[in-house]
Amino acid sequence: MTLDKRARTALALLLVAALALVGWLDYLTGPWLSFALLYVAPVLAAAWWLGRAPTVTAGLTASVAWFFAEAWNRRSEPTRDLLWNGGSRLVMLIAMGLMVVRIRADRERLYAANAQLAGLLDSAQRLARTDPLTGLPNRRAFLERLTDELARSKRSGGPLCVAYLDVDNFKRLNDRKGHAEGDEFLTGVAQAIRDTVRSSDVAARLGGDEFAVLFIDAKPGTTEALAQRLLQRIRGMGDRYPDLDLGVSIGMAHFDASPADAEEILQRADAAMYQAKSAGKHRFSLWAADARKPVLQV
């Protein structure tokens, strides 16, 4: 914890007052009771909370108070012995205090380095799970979330639904307009998906011109309506290139009872998407859990 200026000033005055009180008590009790710990504690407190300069000041104050208390109670001892003892204590107190200052500084640097490292690791993990072009989760992140949702669905018995999207005739766009134009279109597709699905759903770019959506607790009628809206939205984007016939084919897999694993879900949705493409593209196909093959929705 870092103290503000007012708190630092108040603590410094308190430590000086404490050292003066310790010196006075040391003088009153005489040479038979040791107050060494009470001299050291305020110096270490200054070192931990206030820094180098206040530590030196506290060490000097403690040494002076200690010297005068001892000098008064041991007036028979030679002055040079008293000065030697006082000087030795001064060096000891300041050395101890500066050592604590160094320990505190090293501790703060270590905490800062750990925080920076944690931030870098967190950023690296986000980058490893995020598609750099669209900002959507990548295939790895999507499969992890799908696996978690599959486990939750098995526990609760709830439905599970995944859509697989593939941009139609995307290669034509890259070949004729260039990859920059293709990247812009993919970014638009990603935004269209974000705008169309619900905030609770999970959209991802699986790679190339392929996208996926995990619908959370969605009924078939709701997800089919969202798929149709996506078809229209992306078809409208493709109207900017009338000679390229751009659009999207969507395959959806819906399960009332959870399948064995996440890959099976994607495979079913992928198969439904390929049926939509084979039927002429710009279509939606649904593979329900109890169906042997996808059902085409024109």
Structural summary, described in words:
This protein has 298 residues and is of the alpha+beta class. It has two domains: 120 residues, no CATH class; 159 residues, 2-Layer Sandwich (Alpha-Beta Plaits), CATH 3.30.70.270. It is 64% helix and 13% strand. It is built from nine helices and six strands, in the order H-H-H-H-H-E-H-H-E-E-H-E-H-E-E. It has a six-stranded mixed sheet with strand order 2-3-1-4-5-6, sandwiched between helices. Helix 1 packs antiparallel against helix 2, helix 6 runs antiparallel to helix 7 and helix 7 packs antiparallel against helix 8. 33% of the residues are buried. The mean pLDDT is 88.
In CATH terms, the superfamily of the largest domain is Reverse transcriptase/Diguanylate cyclase domain
Unreliable segments of 5+ consecutive residues:
none
CATH architecture heading of the largest domain = 2-Layer Sandwich
* Helical run tally: 9
- How are helices and strands ordered from N to C? HHHHHEHHEEHEHEE
Oligomer: single chain
Tell me the helix content: 55-70%
Strand order of the largest sheet: 2-3-1-4-5-6
- Characterize the biggest β-sheet: 6 strands, mixed
